[in-house]
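Dear Dr. L.,

I hope this message finds you well. Following up on our conversation about the binding site, I have prepared a predicted three-dimensional model of the protein together with 2-acetamido-2-deoxy-beta-D-glucopyranose. For your records, I am including the exact sequence and ligand specification that went into the calculation, followed by the structure tokens. Please feel free to forward this to your student if that is useful.
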Amino acid sequence: MFAAALYAAALVTLYPSAALAQYLLGVGIGDITGPVTETNMMGYADTAQTDTGLHMRQRSRAFIVAESANPSNRVLLINSDIAMGDSGIRRAIVAKLSAQFPGVYSDTNIGLVGTHQHAGVGGYLENLLPQLTSLGFVRETYDAIVAGTVKAAVDAHNSLAEGSLSYGTTDILQGNINRSPSAYLANPADERAKYDHDQDKTMTVVKLKGASGDRGLLSFFPVHGTSLYQNNTLVSSDNKGMAAYLYENYVEPNKAPGNTSFVAGFIQANVGDTSPNTLGAYCNSPGKPWDGQQCEFYHSTCGNNTQECHGRGPGFQVSDFKSNYMIGDYQFQGAKTIMEQPSLNSIAGSVRSVHVYINMSNYTFTLPNGTTTHTCKPAMGYGFAGGTTDGPGLFDFKQGTTSGNAFWDIVKGAVTPEPSAEQKACHAPKPILLNTGEATFPYDWQPSIVNIQMFRMGQLVVLLVPGEFTTMAGRRLREAIKAKLVAQGILGDDATVVIAGPSNTYSHYITTREEYGVQRYEGASTIYGPSTLDAFIDIYSNLVSYLGDAAASPSSGTPPPDLTQNPLSLRTGVLWDNTPSGKSFGQVLTGPEASYTKGSTVSVKFQAATPRNNLRLERTFLTVDQQVNGNWVPYRTDSHPSTKYRWARTNGLLGHSEVTITWDIESDAPSGTYRVSYYGDSKSWTGSISAFSGSTSSFTVA
Ligand SMILES: *[C@@H]1O[C@H](CO)[C@@H](O)[C@H](O)[C@H]1NC(C)=O
Ligand SMILES: *[C@@H]1O[C@H](CO)[C@@H](O)[C@H](O)[C@H]1NC(C)=O
Ligand SMILES: *[C@@H]1O[C@H](CO)[C@@H](O)[C@H](O)[C@H]1NC(C)=O
Ligand SMILES: *[C@@H]1O[C@H](CO)[C@@H](O)[C@H](O)[C@H]1NC(C)=O
Ligand SMILES: *[C@@H]1O[C@H](CO)[C@@H](O)[C@H](O)[C@H]1NC(C)=O
Ligand SMILES: *[C@@H]1O[C@H](CO)[C@@H](O)[C@H](O)[C@H]1NC(C)=O
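The resulting structure of the complex is given below.
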């Protein structure tokens, strides 16, 4: 009896029921992978980066936190393996969820954050500029993102159960570097002296714990999703998706990727000037005196040329896939360090959300020094065409895009109008290259109206920002909001403010006024002019009172126009699939060897059809099967990092294609007998689609 009492007392200490009962928590995950072939990829916006297969599937991960006592106070935070949140997909996701759960989910409490990865399927943004390289809008990509995200959110909703939240931090020193250090140096010396690094190195992790153990995590850490280079054409999830895979696989090693019940949200933060290419930027200039030297500091050039300057990731000697694994692993290890600490700070208090639409074209406000100023209609400066050391850059259509691109040929007649004198003065000292804010043909090139949103979970406040804040811009915003929370008595000194972005709308970059003056890529891409950051600080600050315990949310206001109803779309559909005579779909063209050692690579080839006929969402285009008691049991899928699926058209007119599947055999793979299976869907000349599959002969792994 004494022992039982002690046990009960220990339980109360370990699981204080009040804390456990404070929140309702839900987690879910959904497959959002669009067409993995013949589609432009999103991020580098390079017409040549058209996808040819699959490395890892893209996922949306959904997290719901509600007050147990009053569950209508809830937030739904979605972390999506895409380059950025956008108004178009967000509108569709909000519409579907608010129709399915009226009064429960709305514009106010649904937040959509992109991991800012650059290896995903493109064509889903609704403004014109990001569509230029993808030949316009790609409905298949948009539909896949919306459907998989809604699935993740519904699963999260259906899994709501009592739980507790806690959080901690750790520093990840190797995880990022600043790719525009010369712009950072423009910030005041006394401000820079407050920080040890020119990047934020601290990862914040929130643990979601249920009655029977940990259910998931939310981590916040800034590093660009550019580990995989611009010449990669396999759809993947870059370093944040890798970190999520590594964590989920660590918790549930025997579940297929995307099929775990534990959900790991690796959320992007003030990513603007961060790079995962941590070895620095070097000249790739064979035969020139500066080959192999570091790029020039102020302009990131090699003999005055930007195209030869490339950042190198930590796995540079091996490959960008190795670098991607390493930067993902640093984040996984950092999150694990926090999650496995014996005690974390517990989170307690109200759940609140606030959301408004703001037109940033002429936002007029008073600066802290008393001067009244305003933002400008969007415009991009010359510096943005130079790109970054991570790649020639987002929307860099300086070369290659103006010729041989039918889409560009249509719109170029209406290339942005000459900026007005007022527009030029507003953006100074930025010289305007693209006057996007005064270009409305055939529809808006860049957004005027952005989503502004904040979530509060107890003493943690998440700022969902509509773009890429640089390191110092993010610090200024976080500090201003924390000061306001404390000054208004909403939270105490333990208030923790984190940034999540690019979220909800993509309004490109947000630098400090000093960095803007330097006009590197990030400053040139700060689209609402020099006062952009100060305007955002003003806007978020004015909304802080809505995070108070008793506050009611304001109305969201006027949303941006829906541009997805009749978008330009020039990408061609699938005509048909066929096989050469004597061959059949799924037939093995190159089989495996009889035996392999661990650490080596299996490579096999099949007669194929285009994977665009059926995206096989939540399923797989391949399995590596292991023979267990005489049965074939899937051991690896198309979303394990060790497998790659490469598709090639071998005859466009006749509709022939082939698929090469590789498996890098893990060192810890069980010895035994295996085969590779391929799953496809072919389109006949009448348009009907039929599933088929094929399997290789067996081979041994020892
Ligand atoms: C991709 O680019 C990197 C960096 O320039 C280079 O090292 C690598 O060989 C390229 N890969 C391919 C497949 O061309
Ligand atoms: C995912 O899990 C479900 C239920 O356990 C199972 O039916 C399904 O086959 C799994 N999917 C994959 C790809 O392993
Ligand atoms: C780069 O440009 C500067 C200024 O135009 C010039 O002085 C210099 O010689 C150029 N360097 C090379 C390597 O071409
Ligand atoms: C945003 O504001 C600008 C200037 O104030 C105005 O011209 C424009 O129509 C507004 N945009 C929308 C979508 O309301
Ligand atoms: C911006 O708004 C101010 C007043 O708030 C107005 O005086 C000015 O003309 C506006 N500018 C533009 C470009 O609409
Ligand atoms: C206030 O700050 C802005 C931006 O730095 C500057 O342009 C303006 O001159 C300042 N006003 C005063 C009164 O110092």
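In brief: Residues 1-19, 393-405 have pLDDT under 50 and may be disordered.

With kind regards,
A. P.
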